[in-house]
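Module 6 notes. Inverse folding takes a fixed backbone as the condition and produces residue identities as the prediction. Think of it as a translation problem where the source language is geometry and the target language is the twenty amino acids. Below is one complete input and output pair. Work through it position by position during the lab.
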């Protein structure tokens, strides 16, 4: 089926609600998991800043790739599995 071929091989999961520090900054975690095995592939952390008129903007993204072929990553420390 053509639709199956175009599907992403992973699922996005937001395991926690965004953490609002009540100072105009917040933290959001997003995980990428293998769609078939549910294996954790990537953990991303999003630092957010609130604009004066209300919307949140991405300030930085931290990317930890847990796939063997990308470990530990340039400039990264090894994470426990």
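Target side of the pair, the amino acids:
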């Amino acid at each position: 089926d053509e639709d199956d071929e175009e599907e992403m091989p992973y699922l996005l999961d937001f395991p926690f609600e965004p953490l609002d520090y009540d100072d105009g900054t917040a933290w959001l975690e997003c995980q990428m998991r293998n769609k078939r095995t549910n294996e954790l592939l990537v953990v991303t952390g999003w630092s957010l800043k609130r604009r004066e008129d209300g919307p949140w903007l991405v300030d930085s993204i931290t990317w930890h790739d847990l796939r063997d072929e990308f470990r530990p990553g340039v400039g990264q420390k090894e994470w426990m599995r």
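Reference fact for the lab report: The two ends are 35 Å apart (CA to CA).
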